[in-house]
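Write out the 3D structure for:
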Amino acid sequence: MSATKVSGLGILFLLAATFLPSSAYADPVGDGDVVTYRCEINEQVIPGDVRIRITLTMPSTTPRTGEQFSIGWTGEFVPGSELEAPAGVPAGLKMYAYASISKLPQLTSAMGVGELAAVTAGQPIALLESVNMTTTSKNPGTASVKPASVNFGLSPQNRLIDCEPTNSATLKTYPLTIGGTGSTTPTADEEETDEEPTPQESEDEPTTRSSQTPEEGVATGAGGEAGPDGRMLVLAGSALVLAAGAGGLTLRRTQLVKR
């Protein structure tokens, strides 16, 4: 190859390096997606984009409805796109990482929090190496998860720096499946435990009954409540009394005749 051709190629490479935008270069090798953020401090936009390479880790087992579960978050700044700490940063600054969740009713996000190390004004903020974002789903189904906001402050309501992603549409999604609550049919043991025994009267405990006065008569104690067995006893007693009386009369008449 002639020296003229080599020189021409060198000029082309130099021009490409000078005029191609920085976005044409490959991002540093790593997992996850590079998320571009637009950050604000006290509603004032910070010049330039903040870029964080984020990887999400889905639960190792299928979460069920009504159970809290975690989504792992790891992130690091892309060199040259760090977020610098503003002046007057209070002690105890925390980082709040979010994931957006779609396609599940009543579930839109998961959030994790961790306290940062000492922050120096004008220096890049050191991100947490990892955060567990937690949430709970009220419904079963399959969802899509993406990296979302990263905020800094003393509480979710008292934020100092808000960073919102600007390239959400190009980020890859992570599938998330939420299982149901399982079968509601009780087992044999549960059926025996859950069923309440039917109350029964004990033979040792007599049933309390109120005495009632028969119609057109006086109260007799048993009265109209006396059963068939009681009535038979009363009739038998009466028959015995009548028989005894009749026998007495017959005996007396015999004695009078003999006299």
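Strands lie at 33-41, 44-45, 50-57, 68-77, 94-102, 109-115, 130-136, 141-153, 159-165, 174-178.
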